[in-house]
Amino acid sequence: MEHEITGHTTLIGLLGSPVGHSKSPMMHNEAFQALGLDYCYLAFDVQEANLKQAVDGLKVLGARGMNVTMPCKNAIVSLCDRLSPAAQISGAVNTIVIEEDKRITGHTTDGAGFFLSCREEGFEIKGKKMVILGSGGAGTAILVQAALDGAEEISVFTRSSSAFAARTHQVAEKLREQTKCRIQICEYQDSLLKREIQSSQLLVNATNVGMAPKVSECLIPDASYLHPELTVADIIYNPKETRLIAMAKEAGCRAFGGSYMLLYQGAESFRLWTGKEMPVELIKKKMFQYPHALLRASP
């Protein structure tokens, strides 16, 4: 049975740039069809400068909500009328729900989706130390969720010149007040980066460095920075194996890409929009047929 568009079909979609590579339209439309829901998910290439205009238009058109991706995850916050607790702490939103009164509620599902993907790989963050590369929307969402989930220590690497640096310090301070997690914000400096990774159990690339088409890029200089007891995660899912993941396999690490993070953060967005649970196992079979184990190091 095909997914039919009717005169009553409700619009949901994705805002950001670039979005042409996104699997979200296929994933959500497959789920809508499976549950017989009259929604349609489309991707819209929108730069930050045009974000307010796009959101105003969506409200007029009666859209139900949107996912928001780079570079708009922080800019969208000021356009929301309400924020979920995690979104408020992180200062980033990846999902908006447009209510019947046209007020917008902003949520962040990236952190929860990321740690569900970690559990798929047998890794639990509670009581562990981790290194996060990047302090943008996804990196901050992962930082917040890690602290709330009981991480013992987190080192976030960012550049002081980054537009996100001041916000990252503010988020870290809020988390120190609300959790027992030790958090430090670090500059990219090779010896410090290597030392922090060597004493960690989880390394996460939460930037777009290494995303197609610039697949040769990597923030880790070489495999000597890694160690076999380290789990390495990359939020990028295109390509399936980034240079960082290949390097991690070379070092004997457990490593995985961003496909299941995409799935689980999407499932939470789906629930917020529709009030129903995404048929996750069906979507795995339809869209994520390659085993995650293919991204792990050989024993």
What does this structure look like?
This protein has helices spanning 24-35, 51-61, 85-90, 110-120, 137-148, 165-178, 190-198, 243-250, 259-274, 280-287; strands at residues 10-16, 39-45, 65-68, 82-83, 95-98, 104-107, 129-133, 153-157, 182-186, 202-205, 231-234, 254-256. By secondary structure, it is α/β, with parallel strands linked by helices. The protein starts with 9 loop residues before the first strand and ends in a 12-residue tail after the last helix.
Return residue spans where pLDDT drops below 50 for at least 5 consecutive residues: 290-299
Provide mean pLDDT, rounded: 92
Shape: globular
The count of strands amounts to: 12
Would you list the SSEs in sequence order as H and E?
A: EHEHEEHEEHEHEHEHEEHEHH
Number of helices: 10
Computed CA radius of gyration, to the nearest angstrom: 19 Å
Residues in β-strands, percent: 15-25%
What helical percentage do the residues reach? 25-40%
The strand line-up of the biggest sheet is 2-1-3-5-6-4
Biggest sheet statistics = 6 strands, mixed
First-residue to last-residue Cα separation: 43 Å
Structural class designation: alpha/beta
Offer a few descriptive terms.
299 residues, alpha/beta, 12 strands, 10 helices, disordered C terminus, six-stranded parallel beta sheet, globular
Entry summary:
The protein has ten helices and twelve strands. It is an alpha/beta fold and 299 residues long.
Layout of helices and strands:
Elements: E1 10-16, H1 24-35, E2 39-45, H2 51-61, E3 65-68, E4 82-83, H3 85-90, E5 95-98, E6 104-107, H4 110-120, E7 129-133, H5 137-148, E8 153-157, H6 165-178, E9 182-186, H7 190-198, E10 202-205, E11 231-234, H8 243-250, E12 254-256, H9 259-274, H10 280-287
Parallel strand pairs: 1-2, 1-3, 4-6, 7-8, 7-10, 8-9, 10-11, 11-12
Antiparallel strand pairs: 3-5, 5-6
